[in-house]
Design goal:
Distance between the termini: 54 Å
Bound molecules: iron/sulfur cluster
Number of domains: 4
Helix content: 25-40%
Strand order of the largest sheet: 2-1-3-4-5
Largest sheet: 5 strands, parallel
Length: 467
C-alpha cells in the first residue's frame, strides 16, 4: 500500500479538481491510502508520502502552483515523486521542471500506464471520487453537481484558446450515461449536471448526447426531489449547463431545437468577436424562438478586439433583452497571454493591441459592483458603460474612484470638473495626459514638468484610490 497525497494549490476554484478525483479513484483501486488537501497544510507536509500529486489550472496561477509543489517536496523520497498535471503543467512544462524538478504529466490521463508502467487502467475514464472533497474545508461552488464530459477536445484552434494543446484529439462522443450513473451509485444523486465540453456542437453524435441527457433525467422541465434541512421532501427544478459555451457557428436550427428539449439553463453562446455579430444575433433570435430565454454569454475582450467592439457586443445583448424579452447576462472574460505567469497588465502579452492598463482597470472598476457580470437591465448598463462609444470612452479615461463612486462624484461636481478640464487641454497636452493615464505613469512622472492645465487634470487621479 502506498501513501498518496493529492493537492490542489490554494487558488480559487469553482470546480472540484476532477483530475485529482480520478487519480484518487485509481489509487484506491490499487488499495493505496489516498488523502486530499487544498493548498499548503503543515499537518500533511509533516507526513511521509510515496507520491504527491499537484493539479494545476491557469498559467497565471504560477506562484500558487510552484508554492504548493515546493511546499511538499521534502515529504516524498525524491523531488520527482511530486507529480504535476493540468493546464499550467502542460503549457509551461519546461519552466516548471527547471523551477521545481517535479515530474510533469502532459495533457489528459487518457492512455494506460501513465502513472504506473504496465497498468492498463485509463484514468480519465474512471469515475471521479467525490468523497475526497469531504477531506478539505474548501467549498467548491459546483461540488454537488454531476460534472462530466460528453466530448473531449475541439477540432478548432482559436488563437486565444489552449484546448488544442491540452486535449489535442477531438473525441466526439463519451458515453454520458455510464459516467453519471456511476457517480450516482457511488456518491448519491445530484441536482444539476455540468458538462465541461469545449465544443459539444462539433460532435457528430450531438443527437445521441441529447438523448443521453434526457435519459439521465434532464429533459425540459425536469425536477429533483430531496430532503431539505428540516427533513421535508422538497422538489425543485434541475438544470444542465454546457459550462464552456456553445459555438454560434455550429448552432443550427436543428441543434437549437434539440437543446430546447433538455433542461438547459443558462444557455451560453460565445460572442468572442464582433465579426460574428450577424450570426450571433441570428442565433439569439433562434434561442428565443425555441423558448430558451436564460442566457449567459462569454464576451472575450483585450484580445484583438477594440474597446468599442467590446461595448457593442455588450450592448447587443442588452438590446436583444429589450426586444425579445430575454435574460441575457454577459460574462466579460479578459484575455491573458496563454503562457503568462500572472494576470498583471504590466506583464508583456497581457494587454491587447487596442487596450491599455487604464482601460482594463476601468472595466474592472465598472464590473466591481456586479461581480464580473453585466446584467440584463438596460438602464443600469447605460449608466455603467455609457450611452454610446463617446461616453464609454470617457468612462474608460475617468479616474477609478470616479468610476466606482459614480453618483458621489457626479453629485459633488468633481466628475464634471475633471471632464471640463480634460476638454480644455490643447491637443499636445491631451496627448501627454493620455500617455500618463493610459500607461499608469502617475508614480514616474515629475509633476513639475507638466503644464498647469495637465497638472490640474492629473490631480484628479492622484488620490489614494488610484494607487
Ligand atoms: S472553438 Fe472554443 S474550444 Fe475550440 S479552440 Fe475555439 S475557443 Fe477553444
Amino acid at each position: 500500500m502506498r501513501n498518496i497525497l493529492l493537492i490542489e494549490p490554494a487558488y480559487k476554484s469553482k470546480y472540484p479538481p476532477l483530475g485529482l478525483m480520478k487519480i484518487a479513484a485509481y489509487h484506491k483501486r490499487l488499495n493505496d491510502r489516498v488523502v486530499f488537501a487544498k493548498g499548503c497544510v503543515p499537518e500533511k507536509r509533516s507526513q511521509r508520502w510515496d507520491r504527491v500529486y499537484v493539479s494545476s489550472l491557469f498559467t497565471y496561477y504560477w506562484n500558487e502552483t510552484i508554492k504548493a509543489i515546493k511546499y511538499y517536496q521534502n515529504s516524498v523520497p525524491r523531488r520527482s515523486d511530486v507529480i504535476v498535471g493540468g493546464v499550467l503543467a502542460t503549457l509551461l512544462r519546461n519552466d516548471l521542471v527547471s523551477e521545481t524538478g517535479a515530474k510533469v504529466i502532459l495533457g489528459l490521463l487518457d492512455t494506460p500506464g501513465v502513472l504506473d508502467a504496465g497498468n492498463k487502467t485509463v484514468i480519465d475514464n474512471l469515475t471521479p471520487d467525490y468523497s475526497i472533497l469531504n477531506e478539505s474545508n474548501y467549498d467548491y461552488e459546483l461540488q454537488n453537481c454531476y460534472i462530466a464530459y460528453a466530448t473531449r477536445g475541439c477540432p478548432n484552434e482559436c488563437k486565444f484558446c489552449a484546448v488544442h494543446q491540452i486535449e489535442p484529439e477531438f473525441k466526439g462522443y463519451l458515453p454520458l450515461r455510464r459516467q453519471i450513473q456511476q457517480i450516482e451509485e457511488l456518491y448519491g444523486d445530484k441536482r444539476n449536471l455540468i458538462l465541461l465540453d469545449n465544443n459539444v456542437l462539433a460532435s457528430e453524435k450531438f443527437k445521441d448526447i441529447i438523448k443521453d441527457i434526457k435519459a439521465l433525467g434532464f429533459a425540459k422541465g425536469a425536477t429533483y426531489s430531496h430532503r431539505n434541512k428540516s427533513e421535508r421532501i422538497t422538489t425543485v427544478h434541475r438544470y444542465i449547463d454546457f459550462n464552456q459555451g456553445l459555438d454560434s457557428r455550429l448552432l443550427s436550427e436543428e441543434k437549437m431545437a434539440l437543446l430546447s428539449e433538455i433542461a438547459i439553463r443558462p444557455i451560453r453562446i460565445a460572442f468572442d468577436n464582433i465579426s460574428l455579430r450577424k450570426l450571433y444575433i441570428e442565433k439569439i433570435r433562434l434561442a428565443a424562438k425555441y423558448g430558451l430565454s436564460h442566457l449567459s454569454n462569454y464576451i472575450l475582450y483585450n484580445f484583438k478586439d477594440h474597446p468599442n467592439d467590446f461595448y457593442d457586443r455588450l450592448r447587443i445583448n442588452l438590446d436583444l433583452n429589450e426586444e425579445l424579452g430575454l435574460h441575457i447576462f454577459s460574462f466579460p472574460m479578459r484575455y491573458v497571454d496563454l503562457k503568462s505567469k500572472n494576470r498583471l497588465t504590466s506583464t508583456p502579452g497581457n494587454i491587447g493591441k487596442h487596450w491599455n492598463m487604464k482601460y482594463l482597470r476601468a472595466i474592472q472598476c465598472v464590473l466591481i459592483r456586479t461581480r464580473g457580470l453585466v446584467g440584463t437591465k438596460l438602464e443600469y448598463f447605460l449608466k455603467a458603460f455609457g450611452n454610446d462609444h463617446e461616453e464609454f470612452n470617457k468612462i474608460l479615461l475617468m479616474p477609478e474612484s470616479y468610476i466606482i463612486n459614480r453618483f458621489k462624484h457626479e453629485e459633488d461636481g468633481s466628475t464634471e470638473l475633471w471632464w471640463s478640464q480634460v476638454c480644455n487641454l490643447s491637443s499636445l497636452e491631451y496627448e501627454v495626459f493620455q500617455n500618463i493615464v493610459k500607461n499608469h505613469l502617475f508614480k514616474t512622472i515629475n509633476i513639475n514638468d507638466l503644464t498647469k492645465k495637465v497638472r490640474k487634470v492629473i490631480s484628479h487621479y492622484l488620490n489614494k484610490e488610484e494607487n
